[in-house]
């Protein structure tokens, strides 16, 4: 069967549709269960644990969880027994320590609960099968660490590594084969020498240091508060594409690299702006509904679903949670979506830019800080100008950007995210913050020691969260509360009411490292502000308002350079940012160098202690190596597609035209249409051939220098391989427009984006 016939058959199959229905759980009386009744049913929650354990054992575990004591053997054994019984009663046959290596995804190794007990009798050995799970097995496991990225910290022969139960994240069940289940134990992953080999360890460390620094600041401002724990909250808006799985199977570039390396936009894509928030296609709705059901059972609070801007692009978003749990849940959501999409004949694409010319996908990380009393430290309240605690934590976030913006740029950098940053609702490489007119006015008024201007609409004086009320001027409609700020969709770091939205994080990226870096930078800023307040306070028993305002005014002035309220895509902002001294980091390899620059390394290693110097160097090398490898894989894939599919298709079409012209010539028919088409095709084929050779040359040069300095290798890939890929793509896309459809071997954008 020809490639064209495969394409058309796939199109017919997609049009026929694959319908899968999943019924929502029902009560005994046949009525559907409420979502709240399904929520968390497959999670070994603290409430479930409390019912299963003796009170002293549960109390001991809570103390360990709060960092007040180590988990002793008796407590671990009791928890292990309780969770095994709970899991096996629900069909579990295996357990796994689930962890987050530095691969951008998760990893797991399954072990059975089944053990064999040998007893020796006068008649010989007797073997009895038993189900067993000890406290030691719960607390840690030993996967092979040599086959995961280590950035040079470990040699291939140094295989031992450990996964250790993260007690801050609840264990849960996932469906296994043939109606069985698997117990998942969220874990960190460390080397034999205790070095972090994963994404999660750094995040947990950063949460702790930020908690200590923030508690110190809050209790200095409000000595009667007695805040003992502060935590970061996170809500991750996950964008993705869903395309027909059969179409996907016919695109080797999508299968291997996650993005289309060739392909022309269809005449209609997103330019009519009719897909965003439009009706969700039926097959997609069924898939997302099944995703939501599985998420509910795992205690993942998915709240929102909608069409995104590009055709075939969608988003789901959860309710905010503690950051480390939110990261676990985001990675689980992505994995579940992959599997659910497959069941519905779809394929989920998380690459930041799978289709050239339409919007890419991000993972907007909505970040805030809360106390153990449930107070959001970034809540402006009704009068933010007198809420000095809020102002100081707001300034800490701005100071973090001002001092360590290059680190945040490095944390979101990858070969895939480079395709997205700087256009189509993705922020640029200049890291700045958006506060909105009202908060900007509050800071300006405090700095200038004047009264804050009134932002209320004259006929409506009630205020919600410092905002105003809008009259819609339609009698049948109520007045609506206006938020404190608008939403600047071009800003990398925008304040959106009571949190910051870190919009630059890539859609397929784990949120762990970006949030870790953000936590660390804010910790350093909070510590600096606390030291300034202490110096201002001197020997006085407590801080006065004048003391607080003096420090606030200082940091307002010093952080003004990172505040920008305009269009971050504009050339005017590039010039203005340069005038302000803000770095404009255009490539990932350039961004990676800031990880080990003295200023930023000192903060990460010496001041906060989140990473050892070896761990930081390791991450630096892993990021550079991954970047170069990604581009090499793309180049090899494109080279194969061009050589084995696109060029042969173009030559076959040219041959068909030539044979047609020769046959027509014999019967004396006018040949100008065929000749003109052949003449137009010839230079395009020649360009494609030349681009193919250039791609092969660039790839060979990159391979030749492999093993050199990792950043130099990444820069070489950026400067030579990436342009060669772009040149080859442009030549291929020109051929796609010229070659007759029946000869084209790959599903086109029309079929990929508009067939679901």
From TrEMBL:
> SUPFAM superfamilies, alphabetically?
Glutamine synthetase/guanido kinase
What positions does the domain GS beta-grasp occupy? 93-194
Boundaries of every GS catalytic domain copy: 206-646
A Gene Ontology biological process term: glutamine biosynthetic process
Family, similarity comment:
Belongs to the glutamine synthetase family.
Q: What is the lineage of its organism?
A: Eukaryota, Fungi, Fungi incertae sedis, Zoopagomycota, Kickxellomycotina
Any GO MF annotation of the entry:
glutamine synthetase activity
Q: What is this protein called?
A: Glutamine synthetase/guanido kinase
Top-level taxonomic group: Eukaryota
